[in-house]
Amino acid sequence: MHRVLKPTGSIFLHCDWHANAYIRVHILDRILGESNFRNEIIWKRTNAKGLAFTRLPHNNDSIFYYTKSDKFTFNGQYAPHSDKYLSDFYKYVEHGTGRRYRLGDLTNPNKDRPNLTYEFLGITRVWRWTKERMQKAYDNGLVVQAKPGAVPVLKRYLDEQEGTPLDDNWLDIVNVQSTKEKIGYPTQKPEALMERIIKMASNEGDIVLDPFVGGGTTIAVSDRLNRQWIGIDQSPMAVKVTEFRLQKQTDLFTAPYTVQLHKYDYDTLRYKDAFEFESWIVQQYGGTGNIKQRGDFGLDGKMGDNTPIQVKRSDNIGRNVIDNFKSAVERYDKNLYTKNQKAKNPIGYIIAFSFGKGAIEEVSRLNNEDNIIT
């Protein structure tokens, strides 16, 4: 995800209490950089149910918000004002229009502004606006004076305000299980949650990627908000559920989209010619296959930036494969190896049917201790 993210892009990762600390410190900070951490959004996804006798109930999830650089799209989001706030502050109703409003200060906190110091409606102050602008607002009924001698104030209409600025505690979006949106997908997110995130970090026409599309909420909301989108899932059922969801909101003005379902027979792939298999899988990954097959340090292809790829048509590969691959990559191109390590980019890619515990642990160790990403 980091590799395909635009320099001005953002990434959101949702998790719960089981591993959130490890995910942030050992994965996100290392891959995206501590300086690109923006927020840990706390989403209150449910209310306490039952009794927890040895701990407090877990009702919150974390949504980690990172960017790829210090230049990114951010649109502040707002929540509706509470009833108490409205009754306390927007307590006036304009006769004839029924518009609710409050009265705001028109004086300038900066007292050293001679050009903004003048008399208006018999009151001399340092005002926020020029006299011409003040007079125009008064003529339009936006500046009012309660009585002669009172300081003029500004009408601030409720319907012109955006609401209460959101912070990183999101308590107002209920879990999808208690809404009509529920389609039975186990990890389905509320549309309101995805809408807030998409609006906050993108503009119309931008591209939204969900590489774990699931029930299709991100894609459906992105489409409705006029974003371009890409959705990926290893489950054909998830892809079909998402397609059905899109069809329900499609009309004449909906942009066309393509659904691609790839089904490969396991045995055919597993036992086809070794060289053909290596070339095919490298191409599927976006790389170029190695034609020489000799003097190649056991590497089977490379990405566009020459980062090596190795294909193992095996299950449960062990730590020795990781060790040998690391040595081969370093010998293959020492300068590229050092460059990728310094930039925290992968030094290479290993593709296999499955990885054993030893291999997984060694990759994690290289990442955490040696700053090597494989």
Attribute tags:
4 domains; four-stranded mixed beta sheet; 18 strands; 19% strand
Unreliable stretches, pLDDT < 50, 5 or more residues?
A: none
Mean pLDDT: 90
> Structural class from helices and strands?
alpha+beta
Overall helicity: 25-40%
Strand order of the largest sheet: 1-3-2-12
Question: Any idea how many domains?
Answer: 4
Estimated share of beta-strand residues = 15-25%
| Rg over CA atoms | 29 Å
> What's the main sheet like?
4 strands, mixed
Number of helices, counting only DSSP H or I runs of 4 residues or more: 11
Strand tally: 18
Based on Cα principal axes, name the global outline: elongated
Oligomer: single chain
Structure description:
A hairpin with a 6-residue loop joins strand 5 (92-93) and strand 6. With 374 residues, the protein is of the alpha+beta class. The strands form six sheets. The chain has a four-stranded mixed β-sheet, covered by helices on one side. Strands 5-6-10-9 form a four-stranded antiparallel β-sheet. It folds into four domains: 1-73, no CATH class; 79-160, no CATH class; 180-263, Vaccinia Virus protein VP39 (Rossmann fold), CATH 3.40.50; 266-370, no CATH class. The model has no long low-confidence stretch (mean pLDDT 90). The protein is built from eleven helices and 18 strands. The chain is 30% helix and 19% strand.
